[in-house]
UniProtKB/TrEMBL annotation:
Pfam families, per database record: ADP_ribosyl_GH (PF03747)
Cofactor info, note text: Binds 2 magnesium ions per subunit.
Name of this protein: ADP-ribosylglycohydrolase family protein
Binding site for Mg(2+): 396, 398
Source organism: Blautia wexlerae
Source organism, top-level taxon: Bacteria
Alphabetically ordered keywords of this record: Hydrolase, Magnesium, Metal-binding
Length: 455
């Protein structure tokens, strides 16, 4: 039944909203017991009654003010975001025009490679991932993951081929199960961003992005915050409100995985990339959910010219509020790296703060932006090493693999991505975007470069 579809009912939002609102600085103690009681007695309620009660509680939580002692300032409006940036970290770059096409190709390849690497283990916990990698002689990671393993390993790690973690598919995307690069939301959003830029240009509006979703990507192909926003937009909630209204997933990772195309088309211009990312992110996210997309878009734009990994991460931070939780967490990772903290300790520290068994922590923008930062810093411009670290960290492996692969692909260019990775990714990408159901990576590269050339 449609009422059992994930991310669609107000009742299922309640526990996530409780945690989300608390992290935003609201006093939610008054609602905790009330929500627990409703959940406990929900079996005696009709669907309509549960939805009505949930709506009423969500409405009240939404109106709660931020506590005065909350130490962060996290606006949604671009003008206020600009006021709170650390101007010392903001930079523009001169890019060697002769390298752009190879870097764009590297970005698309890297995104596909990283996404495919992480797909079959999305949702696995860190211990399970590490054990599987070690027992298949792939630790540190050197190659794609396969289900063609011994019966002992299959049973030990519950290795499945029946569509577990497969996006819109019935077969799990282990490397031995694919022919073309399979559809995934991580690549769908990159493609729909490209389509938007082709139709509306670099000055596209949030409304135009929203319309592109409604006309080019079915609702069932989007998840969490995007699915809520999709419904909001369809109900004529304006894009200035659709990202946060009755949307408990507003700081989850969904916007961050949409950033890439905006970095691709702004070589050397992190500010412009972040501005595009803001126009996109606000339709489905709020606060750090928006900042994650701006951060990654800026990283990608800077990666055309900046090979110093510390300066690269700092440049991304320069485009988001220095008063935000995301800024604080990532800057702390940079500081630890510069002070000689090991990769293992950095990952352990992240896991001590964000519980991988909690769906909110697991999917939170801040958590996964931290994974990206750790992977880029400790990967130190080595494509394979950076992707391997993204897998070792756990959390949202396909999203983080795609983002890290994308950044590394721009940094080093397609010609420097190891052949062992490129040879396993066919030239065809499958998507759920109308007009792009099967498209070659070569064509995507060409069309992206055409957008760059339009001033």
């Amino acid at each position: 039944m449609i009422e059992n579809t994930l991310w669609m009912t107000y009742f299922e939002y309640l526990p996530i909203e409780l945690k989300q609102a608390e992290e935003e600085g609201k006093n939610v103690e008054l609602y905790r017991k009330e929500i627990e009681e409703i959940i406990q007695t929900s079996g005696d309620m009709s669907f309509e009654e549960k939805e009505r009660k949930a709506w009423e509680i969500l409405d009240r939580i939404e109106k709660e003010p931020i506590k005065r002692e909350f130490p962060y300032q996290e606006p949604n409006e671009i003008e206020k975001i600009e006021e709170l940036r650390n101007t010392e970290l903001r930079r523009n770059f001169t890019v060697d025009q002769a390298t752009i096409e190879d870097r764009v190709w590297g970005a698309w390849l890297g995104r596909c490679i990283g996404c495919l690497l992480g797909q079959p283990i999305e949702g696995w916990k860190r211990k399970r991932i590490e054990g599987f990698l070690k027992d298949t002689d792939n630790y540190p990671v050197e190659r794609f993951l396969s289900s063609d393993v011994s019966e002992e390993i299959i049973h030990k790690y519950n290795v499945s081929n029946n569509g577990e973690n497969a996006f819109c598919d019935t077969v799990t995307h282990w490397i031995n199960n694919i022919v073309d690069m399979p559809e995934d939301d991580d690549t769908n959003y990159t493609v729909i961003g490209l389509k938007t830029l082709e139709i509306y240009g670099k000055d596209f509006t949030s409304d135009q992005i929203a319309w592109m979703w409604l006309t080019s990507l079915a609702m069932g192909h989007v998840s969490t915050a995007e699915r809520v926003a999709y419904r909001n937009i369809g109900n004529l909630v304006p894009t200035s409100k659709s990202g946060w209204w009755k949307n408990p997933y507003r700081e989850w990772i969904g916007a961050q995985i949409r950033a890439d195309i905006f970095g691709y088309v702004c070589p050397g211009d992190p500010k412009k990339a972040a501005d595009m990312a803001w126009r996109d992110a606000r339709i489905s996210h709020a606060k750090n959910g928006i900042y994650g997309e701006m951060f990654v878009a800026a990283l990608l734009a800077a990666a055309y010219a900046e090979s110093n990994v510390v300066k690269l991460i700092e440049t991304g931070l320069g485009e988001i509020p220095a008063t935000s939780r995301l800024y604080e967490v990532v800057l702390g990772i940079v500081s630890d790296y510069c002070n000689g903290v090991s990769k293992e300790k950095a990952i352990n520290k992240l896991h001590s703060k964000y519980n991988e068994d909690d769906s909110h922590d697991w999917c939170l923008t801040i958590t996964n932006a931290a994974v990206v930062a750790i992977s880029i810093l400790y990967g130190e411009t080595d494509f394979t090493n950076a992707l391997g670290i993204a897998m070792e960290c756990g959390y949202d492996t396909d999203c983080n693999g795609a983002t890290v692969g994308s950044i590394m692909g721009i940094m080093i260019g397609a010609k420097n991505i190891p052949e062992s990775w490129k040879n396993n990714v066919t030239g065809i990408l499958r998507t759920g975007v109308s007009g792009f159901y099967q498209v070659s990576i070569e064509e995507l590269t060409r069309r992206t470069c055409a957008i760059i050339d339009k001033k």
